[in-house]
């Protein structure tokens, strides 16, 4: 993030802040251009710039990835499902686009801390074989740690006393589309992103790898909502597993793997109803799924979670 901020300062913010606050300008020694006199290392400038970068990057990444997934991957026959809401895509996009700035604001102290060198992120080119091995092993280590964290935070948010305050909004989409991927209550999105930041503050990780993993995580979040069930894996938490989470509620809380669901006794393997397109598009199958989902919603209402 510090590298992104450096180039954003150079090409955008120095000039932009000079235009927004024309009374606070200076002349660049290097180029002779008019730039902001607000110091780049000022704490509040860093916060404002990091907020703008993260929010705009979040919007672009979400809209681009979800649109590509929606048009190229998503099974549009799912829009005939009785549980697919009227105007659902518009509602999902509105929900996600309005949540991203609030999620960014909640996460801002952690992002800023990473820019200011308070985390365990490191830079530089790996020199020894050990450095390279550590870099490569950071990937499974990061995935394992964050998968565990997300599983337990997600499962906690399904607790009857917590659910309606934090996580209910994401389950409005019983038949999710890729646009549901970031359609959360902002506090829900923030809590589910905490394992990534906890890792960065606890375990040394190369900053470029961390940035790459952050982008990957956003891709993955879209992919598990894409409704196209290519993989029959029992190890990877695929979009078929996450589809089951949305319809049947108390299963498959994981993010990348099924490990914690298997250990936590919440794993439910998808079957031909998800994998076989002829069966999954059958209106009788959809009607039964809708009935079962409504029964679950009814039983949750009785426990006053809805
Ligand atoms: Zn959930
Ligand atoms: Zn979801």
TrEMBL record:
Keywords, comma-separated and alphabetical: Membrane, Transmembrane, Transmembrane helix
GO CC, alphabetical: membrane
Chief place where the protein resides: membrane
KW Phosphoprotein (keyword) present: no
Swiss-Prot/TrEMBL GO biological process terms: lipid biosynthetic process
Cell compartments where the protein resides: Membrane
InterPro entries linked to this entry: Fatty_acid_hydroxylase, Sterol_Desaturase_Related
Gene Ontology molecular functions: iron ion binding; oxidoreductase activity
Source domain of life: Eukaryota
Membrane in keyword set: yes
Transmembrane parts of this sequence: 48-73, 93-112, 132-153, 208-225
Fatty acid hydroxylase domain ranges (all copies): 142-264
Name of one Pfam family that matches: FA_hydroxylase
Alphabetical list of PANTHER family matching this protein: STEROL DESATURASE (PTHR11863)
Protein name: Fatty acid hydroxylase domain-containing protein
Organism: Thamnidium elegans
């Amino acid at each position: 993030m510090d590298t992104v901020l450096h180039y954003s300062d150079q090409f955008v913010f120095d000039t932009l802040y000079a235009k927004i606050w024309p009374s606070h300008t200076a002349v660049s020694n290097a180029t002779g251009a008019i730039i902001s006199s607000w110091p780049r290392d000022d704490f509040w400038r860093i916060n404002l710039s990091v907020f703008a970068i993260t929010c705009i990057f979040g919007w672009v990444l979400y809209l681009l990835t979800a649109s590509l997934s929606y048009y190229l991957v998503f099974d549009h026959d799912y829009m005939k499902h009785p549980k697919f809401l009227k105007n659902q895509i518009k509602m999902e996009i509105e929900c996600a686009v309005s949540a991203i700035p609030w999620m960014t604001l909640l996460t801002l102290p952690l992002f800023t801390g990473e820019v200011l060198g308070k985390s365990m992120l490191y830079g530089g080119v790996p020199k020894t074989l050990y450095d390279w091995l550590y870099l490569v092993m950071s990937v499974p280590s990061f995935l394992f740690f964050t998968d565990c964290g997300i599983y337990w935070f997600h499962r906690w948010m399904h607790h009857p006393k917590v659910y309606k305050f934090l996580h209910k909004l994401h389950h409005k989409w019983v038949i999710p589309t890729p646009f549901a991927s970031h359609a959360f209550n902002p506090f829900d999105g923030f809590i589910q992103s905490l394992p990534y930041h906890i890792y960065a503050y606890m375990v040394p990780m190369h900053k470029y790898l961390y940035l790459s993993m952050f982008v990957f995580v956003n891709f993955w979040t879209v992919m598990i909502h894409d409704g196209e069930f290519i993989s029959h894996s029992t190890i990877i938490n695929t979009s078929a597993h996450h589809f089951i989470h949305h319809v049947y509620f108390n299963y498959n809380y994981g993010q990348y793997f099924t490990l914690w669901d298997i250990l936590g006794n919440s794993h439910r393997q998808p079957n031909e109803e998800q994998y076989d397109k002829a069966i999954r598009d059958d209106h009788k199958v959809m009607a039964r799924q809708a009935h079962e989902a409504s029964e679950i919603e009814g039983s949750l209402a009785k426990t006053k979670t809805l």
